[in-house]
Specification:
heterodimer, A: mainly alpha, two-stranded antiparallel sheet, B: alpha/beta, 8-stranded mixed sheet, two-stranded antiparallel ribbon
Chain lengths: ~575, ~450
């Protein structure tokens, strides 16, 4: 029974929301319908392909093989829809291009989330965004050319020197070489403008246009057709950019660009060498931090509101300090052992100098990294940022905390409450765990969230003596996780050691890397990644390396291939 | 209070009483009847339930002689309101493949089921063009789309769409909203001589031409769905180019920029941000920068908003979504009081909007008389889709007002087409999903 449910719950990752108003138990074990045609199109804008969820192979229970392999002959791959840079990618990219340190994307509208991660892959660009891009490009180009010598080492009047700068700058901005037509277009813009308004204005306008061009704003797959099969390989420049945005959240550096130009990335050894180099670069922290902030849902923490009487310390600055604590913790684990899952889940040290953060942790008078009182904290689950994020204004939220663990760490989907849930009469039992309509789902979340009761709405250890901290994970996806636990410190240890959580992390990283949900033709890639991640003992950098070297990352399906002229 | 009196005064100074406003006023008074305009207003959750909303009176249609105590802040505008009750979204709900209690935000202005984009509750975009964008297209006017803390970029947080899966994102920063809305209107930007302005225009044009050429090249290389995305991008670059060609209409209207704008991303500033956005929308309509505007406060459930706003008469340390649910679940005691306090807060915001509009003289009446203000709702009580309660205000110059109208079971699509009719789009006989719509409501 449990095995079967696991199968469905994992299968339901892709389309649980489409099951016809299922309750969370019973039916989940039996209903497994193919989504009808109109529903399946999570990946394609405006009705492209209809990806099928991977329903072929029931993943096994802990340690058991899961059935026949999903891998056939030759690479299989899914779509890579064009997508706009996320806000973070935008900021990092212009930082590396122009040396700006502030965040130009601060005023941009939020990123569109796909499969839990910022992606900007589905909805087309909107008027507001086009205007934002124009305003940012104009401000950035203006600032960059206000001191042309610093940017270019050319003098103001030296047009040929400035043109030389543009020739090197443009392919970096676009993460690929320009075609002849494109080069001519930009040289003309620059020389015409220089003739009318001077060389510096010429460069300024060229930069403005480059930064508003779709070749800058979008990730666009350029492909080359393989001899057989319907998949196509990304060309080396596209692959280099994809690697770079996965691992560094920014554009490729000189060495990676050179490797791409020389065709080195097409060889497994060359690719591995670059990936290894990238993972040891300090920039890899950006990729890891970004993944973890988005996976843990922390990018919006600054906007959380807490009851000012109960939590007078709460402020956007404290929220920021909490987020930085998570980032520093991720970095520390990454530096120590490559980001081992079990360490991420249990490493209790805290980071930061903000007195308000220390008060939350209940320590005083230290600087930099510090150790919270023994036994109170264990890794990501007990970081104040996470606890505060999944909380109401005045108290922790059982449902939110439970849902967070189910969805983000166990990769289960809790259906939204069906519209038939109506509690019309006053006096109905308020408990979501008693009314069967509510309890079928809430019993998966609330008893789990109750286990976090020792931590209040900002993640401090609650002084409420009544808070028991006993929680329970019912209908766990694996026997090892089933049943009661004693607070999140106990739970974190169980999760950190769980092969099921490891396979969930593979899915999360996969989604982060390809910016879409996994689908049928990703099954082979996921199977291999799970094996590689498990073999490494759950080391995140091993997973990233395996992901970066996988067919799923280097190939795209027919829907994302260029039209051959 | 002080704040509102101040900005109201500022607005009057700008477009009612000062000499700067004279050209604007004279243009209007010399023209024919002022044009019909549309303002969409959105607030989270539902207007509680029928008992809190329905006015005293008998029958399916009657003149408003009083309002429900809940609606007290709107009493000064009673004769200008239409309370439109008991419509249904059930049929759209039955066509929508996605589950969950808060999908109506995608249906309410489009009249179509949503398109799911993933397994999570907010993973959807609406399935068609929204009323505001549709009317703007027909009026050939750029819709001014504004919001205050509208939540993330997902179906839960968007009300306006240019088409299926094409969200229109609201501008949330009142300062940027003002600058962009009036960029062709505000005369004399600092340091900008006429020659400079012409050079800037030419420079922008060459930049946009280059970008347009890049978009054309890339679009030609991609398969159909991707090409559509880029073609849409291209059409917006073309719009920006057209905007450059248009002569600045600096003399038409002197709008007043918001002063001391708070951090619009904070919960604490939400009431103030909301009013600043309403000021921008009202001025945009008054100056006829546009004939269609929308102001979106919060999102469908507003779980991210906590009404700790003592200056605005409300101070509850629960989020708005929880307040709504607590009321549904217990139906008594403080949960009722909280829910009523919260809804009153929004009625006061709406009253502020109407006051600002009434302060702008226009033709024989005011801006309010020439604008149909549509307070759109995305859900009924307790996650139901029937009955849904809507409200209009204003438009007295071209429709009768001061009435209660009940249409039990009628799809809300018919209200959307009815609004089009009142705005003069007499050929619009159906709005949204054709199998759901019947015929325009006579409102």
């Amino acid at each position: 029974m449990l095995v079967k449910r696991l199968d469905v719950v994992l299968g339901a990752l892709s389309f649980a929301a489409l099951l016809p108003a299922v309750a969370c138990t019973g039916q989940l074990g039996t209903v497994l319908e193919e989504p009808d045609e109109d529903d399946g199109q999570f990946g394609g804008a405006g009705g492209a392909s209809a990806p099928k969820p991977p329903t072929d192979r029931p993943p096994g229970r802990d340690g058991e093989p899961g059935g026949p392999s999903a891998c056939g002959k030759g690479p299989s791959a899914g779509p890579m829809p064009i997508r706009r840079l996320t806000r973070k990618e935008y900021d990092h990219t212009v930082r590396d291009l122009l040396g700006v340190t502030q965040s130009p994307s601060l005023g941009f509208t939020d990123d569109e989330i796909v499969a839990g991660f910022a992606a900007n892959a589905l909805a087309p660009v909107d008027r507001l965004q086009v205007e934002d891009y124009r305003a940012a490009a104009s401000t950035l180009a203006e600032a960059a050319t206000s001191d042309v010598r610093r940017l270019t080492s050319c003098s103001d009047a030296d047009l040929p020197c400035l043109q030389g700068f543009l020739r090197k700058f443009a392919p970096r901005a676009w993460r690929r070489p320009l075609t002849e037509t494109e080069s001519r277009r930009y040289e003309k813009l620059m020389s015409d403008s220089a003739a009318a308004w001077g060389p510096v204005t010429g460069l300024r306008l060229a930069i403005q246009a480059l930064l508003q061009s779709p070749n800058f704003l979008y990730h666009v797959p350029q492909t080359r057709k393989e001899a057989s099969g319907d998949v196509a390989r990304l060309d080396d420049a596209t692959l280099a950019a994809r690697l770079s945005y996965l691992i560094w959240q920014t554009l490729p550096d000189e060495e990676l660009t050179k490797a791409a130009a020389e065709g080195v990335l097409s060889t497994p050894e060359g690719l591995t060498k670059q990936v290894e180099r990238m993972l040891t670069s300090p920039r890899a922290h950006d990729g890891l931090r970004t993944f973890h902030l988005q996976w843990l849902g922390l990018e919006s923490l600054r906007q959380s509101t807490k009851d000012p009487e109960l939590f007078p310390d709460w402020s956007p600055e404290l929220a920021q300090a909490m987020v930085e604590d998570v980032e520093a913790a991720v970095s520390a684990v990454f530096a120590a052992d490559g980001g081992k899952l079990s360490t991420l889940m249990t490493m209790p040290d805290a980071f930061g100098d903000a007195p308000a953060l220390k008060r939350v942790y209940g320590v005083t008078g230290t600087k930099g990294a510090f150790s919270p009182p023994p036994g109170e904290r264990a890794g990501l689950l007990t970081r104040p940022a996470v606890l505060a994020r999944y909380a109401h204004a005045a108290e922790g939220s059982w449902t939110e905390r439970g849902k967070f663990v189910r969805e983000r760490m166990l990769c289960q989907t809790i259906p939204a409450p069906p519209p038939t849930v109506v509690i019309d009469e006053p006096g109905n039992d308020p408990s979501r765990l008693k009314d069967p309509l509510c309890s079928s789902c809430h019993r998966l979340m609330d008893p789990l969230g109750q286990g976090f009761d020792r931590y209040d709405a900002v993640g401090a250890l609650s002084r409420d003596a009544g808070a028991s901290g006993k929680g329970a994970l019912w209908d766990a996806p694996t026997e090892a996780l089933e049943g009661e636990f004693d607070g999140p410190v106990d739970l974190a240890k169980k999760l950190g050691d769980s092969p099921h959580v490891m396979s969930c992390m593979v899915r999360q990283w996969f989604r982060f890397a390809v910016k879409r949900l996994e689908q049928q033709n990703d099954a082979c890639a996921l199977e291999k990644l799970e094996a590689q991640f498990a073999a490494s003992g759950g080391v995140t950098t091993s997973l990233i390396a395996a992901l970066a070297a996988s067919d799923a990352f280097a190939f795209v399906g027919p829907e994302s291939q260029e039209i051959q002229p | 209070m002080n704040r509102s009196a101040h900005s109201r005064r500022a607005l009057l100074r700008a477009i009612g009483t000062s000499s700067l406003a004279a050209p604007f006023l004279s243009r209007l008074s010399f023209g024919a009847e002022p044009p019909r305009r549309l303002l969409v207003f959105f607030t989270p959750n539902e207007p509680i339930d029928r008992a809190h909303w329905a006015p005293p009176g008998q029958g399916a249609s009657f003149k408003l002689t009083g309002l429900n105590p809940m609606l007290a802040p709107l009493e000064p505008f009673r004769d200008k309101l239409n309370l439109i009750g008991d419509l249904s979204m059930e049929r759209i709900a039955s066509l929508d493949k996605k589950d969950g209690g808060h999908r109506g935000i995608g249906w309410m202005l489009t009249g179509r089921p949503n398109v799911p984009t993933g397994p999570q509750q907010p993973d959807f975009w609406a399935g068609g063009i929204s009323l505001d964008q549709f009317v703007a297209e027909r009026f050939k006017t750029p819709a001014v789309t504004l919001g205050a803390l509208s939540g993330g970029s997902s179906g839960n947080g968007r009300i306006s769409y240019a088409g299926r899966m094409q969200p229109v994102h609201p501008q949330e920063d009142p300062k940027v909203a003002f600058d962009r809305t009036f960029q062709n209107v505000v005369p004399g930007k600092p340091g900008a001589g006429a020659g400079d302005a012409e050079a800037r225009r030419l420079q922008q044009k060459s930049v946009l031409d280059t970008v347009a050429a890049d978009l054309g090249d890339l679009s030609a290389r991609l398969a159909a769905p991707e090409r559509e995305k880029l073609d849409r991008h291209l059409s917006m670059i073309r719009d920006l180019e057209k905007q450059l060609q248009a002569a600045p209409s600096g003399a038409a209207c002197q709008a007043v920029a918001p002063k001391s704008v708070p951090d619009h991303k904070t919960n604490a500033a939400y009431p103030r941000t909301s009013r600043l956005q309403m000021d921008v929308a009202v001025q945009a309509l008054a100056c006829q920068v546009t004939r269609v505007a929308s102001v979106q406060l919060g999102n469908t459930g507003a779980g991210h908003l906590t009404p700790l706003w003592p200056d605005d008469g409300i101070n509850i340390n629960k989020d708005e979504h929880n307040i709504a649910h607590a009321y549904s679940q217990t139906g008594s005691g403080p949960d009722v009081k909280n829910r009523e306090l919260l809804e009153s807060f929004y009625y006061r915001q709406f009253a502020y909007l109407l006051r600002q509009m009434e302060a702008v003289p226009e033709g024989n009446g005011t801006l309010l008389d020439h604008t149909l203000v549509f307070w759109v709702k995305n859900i009924s009580h307790n996650h139901k889709w029937d009955p849904v309660f809507f409200m209009t205000a204003g438009g007295g110059a071209f429709m009768s007002t001061g009435r209660f109208l009940s249409f039990p079971g009628r799809p809300h699509n018919d209200l959307l087409s009815g609004i089009c009719q009142k705005l003069g789009l007499s050929d619009v006989s159906s709005f949204g999903e054709p199998s759901v719509a019947t015929e325009p409501l006579s409102i």
